What we know:
Blueprint: E1 17-20, E2 25-30, E3 36-42, E4 49-54, E5 57-59, E6 62-67, E7 75-81, E8 84-85, E9 90-91, E10 106-107, E11 141-143, E12 166-169, H1 171-175, H2 189-192, H3 195-204, E13 208-211, H4 221-224, H5 252-264, E14 268-273, H6 290-298, H7 324-340, E15 345-348, H8 351-354, E16 356-357, E17 360-361, H9 366-373, E18 381-384, E19 404-407, H10 408-419, H11 425-432, H12 436-439, E20 449-451, H13 461-464, H14 500-518, E21 523-527, H15 559-577, E22 596-599, H16 608-611, E23 618-623, E24 643-649, E25 655-658, E26 668-674, E27 685-687, E28 691-694, E29 698-704
Parallel strand pairs: 12-13, 12-21, 13-14, 14-15, 15-18, 18-19, 19-20, 20-21
Antiparallel strand pairs: 1-2, 2-6, 3-4, 3-7, 5-6, 7-11, 8-9, 10-11, 16-17, 22-23, 23-24, 24-29, 25-28, 26-27, 26-29
Amino acid sequence: MGRGALRVWPGSPNRRGATWDGLGVNFAIFAENAERVELCLFDERGRRELHRISLPEYTDQIWHGYLPDARPGQLYGYRVFGPYAPERGHRFNPNKLLLDPYAKALSGTILWSDAHFGYRVGSARGDLSFDRRNDARGMPKCVVVDTSFTWGSDRPPRTPWNETVLYELHVRGYTMRHPEVPGPSRGTFAGLGSPAVIRHLRELGVTAVELLPVQAFLDDRHLVERGLHNYWGYNTNAFFAPDPRFLRTGSLDEFKTCVHHLHDAGIEVILDVVYNHTAEGSELGPTLCFRGIDNAAYYRLVPGNPRYYMDSTGCGNALNLRHPRVLQMVMDSLRFWVEEMHVDGFRFDLATTLAREDHGFDEHSGFLDAIRQDPVLSEVKLIAEPWDVGEGGYRLGGFPPGWAEWNDRYRDVARRFWKGDFGMVGELASRLTGSAEFFHHRGRRPWSSVNFVTAHDGFTLRDLVSYDHKHNEANREDNRDGTDQNHSWNCGAEGPTDDPAVRALRLRQSRNLLATLLLSQGTPMLVAGDELGRTQHGNNNAYCHDDEISWLDWEGIDAEGRSLLEFTRELVRLRRRHAPFHRNRFFAGELEHRDIVWLRPDGHEMTQAGWEDGGSRTLAFRLSGEAGQYHLTEHGDPISGDTFFVVLNAHDATVAHHLPGEGGERDQWWVLLSTADEAPVDGASWHAGQGYEAPARSVTVFVRQPRSR
């Protein structure tokens, strides 16, 4: 669009953002306290500002206008006029080019300078001063897009929750070094949707990928100045737009095509989303979007002192979801990703903040109630990270029915048990059975507990068994960042070693942790690369590394990694094949049908004294497939299934366990899986009552076929 005169019509306030209708583009933006809004149009490279157009209409706090001559591909931004009065919560500064909160695509990246700040950096008056520099040349530009796409036969897999196996991955890190992904596609959605990557996911057996943030995010200035990046992406600045660095073509079609390919493979797509805060930070942060559009509306400000921000996120600000237009923006964004981009669900970062009202966390907050009644969003997978850093922020088990929640209590006890800590067996039993004390209420199911032993934040699985201490020197923060509470054990040597005994023990411990995870009730979450022995060289906070520290080295997988991959595939197959390991109901423990029985090594049932034995480091249980309502006939009758006996021995020596049952030739147990190198030969069997020497630090799974077979 050249510099000539432009036609500007009133347009409509009903759809926020830039909406192409086939004839022209409607622009609409919420700015309750603004005095004027200018739409700025740029050339195709985003370097020259061609037009500034005052939006002609203001309806219900929405500024809007229609440009019949605008077309998809047009680059734009906004300048918003109003008072600069931080002491009253207003930070308008029309010298700053602002992103459209509803932008569906961005072009370019931020080129940091002091001009991005609404106040004069270094001024004695701090953020109360006013900066008049134009920052447009260093700002990304919004892009008008045509969202049409031929989905064809695409259908969401809709995997039942109790059959779901999650796989957390980073789009860029997962594909950057994959030898079968074409060079230009590496690090992008095109790479994630490539045949080689999807083949690995299918062979592994996962049912859903949980993508670390893909909504457009910002590299913090302090990281850029240190030659680092905000790799994880928990710094969103555009809730509708995929981050340009993940798009090889720059088109939304690339993301949609990736989703289509994953769906064809039966794999769901879950997005990790960050609606709790934005990339603008505290009152000392830059003015990029929401702050300059209407600071007092978009952010939670300190009552009585609105110069400052309420901060339950630790990131400097919190979005004000109590404002109906801000809540509407979040809901519109979520529906956009489901209806337009066909994703299957969301994992909400620091979800407690989203549900905070004036008095704190509220299960009936506007956000949670809006989700629950929404005909689209109430039917997709919803996962909460059930905490934030504010007062009363830890809310595990506190989210409404229909939600799943990350269970960090599971992570900690699984790590501590296999590390060899005493006094863990009682809590481990609770975690293995779905953490009923947190989730067994109001009709919630065991799948509500998302179980994990590793996540993007922390050690990888290999590092968890290879390091006693974090090694974050590459972050350039003097190893001060990252948690010190890792519950890790290096198995006898810190970091890489050629000692065969240490390496063998590390591999066994990795198998133990994976087996525990995949044999537990609840929804298991694997982390990309753990099945291959990926290492971050002891870095437990690699958020700032868009490099080899974070990227999965597909060609560098060693023999131990290949062995672990085959073991993980076997584990996932075992879980998915045998319904007792992914029940849809909590255990009943009824006397007539004992669906789970906890057993001592002598074969007798656990007593209270056994649970209170702080020195015990072994746990065994019989899991019945004969009474659990796992699969039903058309008449609603339960189908009998296999019965299992599982022994988890975290001792550093063998422990004899008696196989359960009455004994005799008809009551036999076969080893189905063992994490020990000295595992029994394939097909080996034991009679009920016979002793089994459970190897040191091992998991053994026995199966007993129903007698009628």
